[in-house]
Amino acid sequence: MTMATSNLYLLCKAMNNLRVNHIVKRTGHYTTLRKPKYRPPYWFMPKERVVSEDMLTQENRDFLEEVKQDKQVLQKQMESPLANVEMQQATEWTPFTRRVGLIARKIGNYPLWTKDGKKFQTTLLQVVDNHVIKYIPPEEFNPMKSGKMKKEHWKEKRTLGCLLVGSETIDPSTVTKDYCGMFTNVGMLPKRHLCRFMVSPHAQLPTGTPLYATHFRVGDCVDIRAKTIDRGFQGVIKRWGFKGMPASHGVTKTHRRPGNIGAGGEKARVWPGTKMPGHMGNSWRIIRGVKVLRVNTEHNVLWMLGVAIPGETGAMCYLYDTVLPLKKLKTAPPFPTSLHVDGLPLEYYDESIHAFEQPTIKFEEA
Predict the structure, then answer these.
(1) H/E element holding 303?
(2) What does the alpha-carbon distance between residue 95 and residue 123 come to, in Å, rounded to a whole number?
């Protein structure tokens, strides 16, 4: 009886120590991983709505279409706010200055030739109807913080503001009232795409400022962020480039299988990060240091070197000055952006690219 009482006393003492502040919590690398939360940005407004035209007559539709056309004409005739403001001198630009970027649509590939006859494949990006919607100063900009970035750490980095840029004007009747309210103060129609760009405070732009393809010069290098092509669920050969098993000689139904995925012994488990079948594509990728070879000022088209820009034809891309140290801007670009001036050349070519309107062969008399 005495032994049983002693054991009960030891058990009660052990259970008493199991308080919340005594529990040891594992904080290893893999145990702290959490599933990403697909939360919309804080400036997001509900965009889509159910379109119902049951109560509209044909006269009402014609009137709404006429009002929309009038607003689009007024928006195109709107003068840039920078035209009435004295432009900042180019000397104010420094290599550490961060300018605003552009929203462009990938419209296809096209070859270009150098002056010595070498052929290059390029990707065409069209800047469609870009305008500055809103500017948030560094003191008021509070982005969503990840688990690794604490609040006190972000206060030390509050040196950049945020510019909200919109692209492609759409019909106001197809979006919600809350989403249209974002553009009321700007006096513009709603935009289909929005993007945030971190800029230096002295590189901010007034709301309503249009942005053109001449924001970047030929010869400059930019970084491009876009979503890759959605491939769906794919196996390891297409997703990770596995070689696969032989086609014959004793191989039975394992030609395209991944093979062994775990170890034996004490570590009898699948290691995190093992390459296995799964969803491929539809993820954000950034390609850095892409050179601008040609600019069309009439249609706002940029010819970018290479065909490795993420996304399929028609995808949206976000362009901004490159951060690569060896390809950063050496001279002052159009700062804070370029204005639309009448009489600009139709095409700008890089010094190494052959212009199509020039003759390919020159005859010189000896």
Answers:
(1) strand 301-305
(2) 27
